[in-house]
Design goal:
Elements (H helix, E strand, L loop, with lengths): L7 E5 L4 H12 L3 E6 L2 H9 L8 E5 L18 E4 L11 H20 L8 E5 L17 E2 L9 H5 L5 H23 L4 E5 L3 E3 L14 H11 L12 E3 H13 L7 E2 L9 H11 L22 E2 L2 H7 L6 H15 L2
Helix pairs in contact: 1-7, 3-5, 6-10, 8-10
The structure holds NADP nicotinamide-adenine-dinucleotide phosphate (NAP).
NADP nicotinamide-adenine-dinucleotide phosphate binds next to helix 1 and strand 8.
Keywords: Oxidoreductase
InterPro entries: Epimerase_deHydtase, NAD(P)-bd_dom_sf, NAD(P)_dehydrat-like
Pfam families: Epimerase (PF01370)
Amino acid sequence: MSYQQPTHVLVTGSTGFIGAHVVDNLLARGISVRGATRSAKKGEQMKAARPQYAPKLDFVVVEDFTNIGVFDAAMEGIDAVIHVASPFFYDTTNNEQELILPAINGVKSILSASAKPGSKVRRIVLTSSFASVVDIDSNPPAGFTYTGTHWNPLTYETAIDPKSTSIVAYRGSKKFAELAAWDFVKTEKPQFDLVALCPPMVFGPVVHPVPNIDQLNESNAVLWSVAAGVDPLPGIRVPAWIDARDLAEAHVQALLRPEAGGKRFIPASPEPFSYEYAADIMKESFDWAKGSVTSNYKAGEKPHASYGVDGETVARELGVKYHTFKETVVDFVKQVKDTLA
Ligand SMILES: NC(=O)c1ccc[n+]([C@@H]2O[C@H](COP(=O)([O-])OP(=O)(O)OC[C@H]3O[C@@H](n4cnc5c(N)ncnc54)[C@H](OP(=O)(O)O)[C@@H]3O)[C@@H](O)[C@H]2O)c1
């Protein structure tokens, strides 16, 4: 059967950092978008900022996406789904309730709505994460490269253990949510296929509503903290990244290209990054940054993370051309400095 190009796409997480870039990429191609959001206000702000797309953009409010059935009413006329939404924050008090179960149940909820009798959905693109790929505790041999065939070895028991950090729980949330999606397709045999994207750190300018600097998404917040001189930088990071605009392109190409169905990709720039490199770019590009960037940039990085990440497959099979790290840092830092700082 020939693959029907999508005309009306439901995007979850549409008012978040990555989701809003996906919305814009689809709209720019003339594809209609229905954004799912928890906030009617953010949906209205997104619409108001895109008057030229008014006839092709609407929003549905889904306050708690973890209840099966909540997406059913949003599926009218929808022929493809990009499921971006997932809890992504580290200040949790209950890892299983706040991160892991919402991520898994959100996937089950959108997939079961898409599989209902009469559904026209033919493909679902899922935003998973490099967190579901990388074995953070291993010390891979020289020359080792992570590909879409790798899975992090975390067990569910460790992920939900109250003694585990929220970073470990987030890794579990992405792994077990993605597994739930692949299991659903295998056991339910729905009329759609699945593509999973596993990006590492995502940076870049924002196109979603961000009322103030404290409400930047997690990954951009760390990049901004380099500019702002936060010392030490929070958390453990992976040494791979992608620009949000390139990641949006990967999502949309994963939707449009028939041959992508059933595959798992790592969209990642081939250029390694570090916060030290980011600090250098900031100092070189902005006079004001010379005195403010952090000098303790290594604090947030994991030592010895000397593995490769296969972003080439996405470049080759999905036709994505990656921004340079310098372009991404400059575009993001300039935007934040001019509009939020
Ligand atoms: N940024 C990165 O470095 C990175 C890297 C790898 C993977 N990812 C994945 O990319 C996706 C988007 O992340 P982001 O960076 O764009 O972060 P974000 O701006 O915080 O976006 C998260 C989105 O998920 C939605 N969401 C979270 N919990 C939800 C819940 N319980 N019910 C309904 N919606 C919920 C949020 O909805 P509202 O807008 O309504 O608040 C928001 O739109 C996530 O799946 C994340 O795991 C991100």
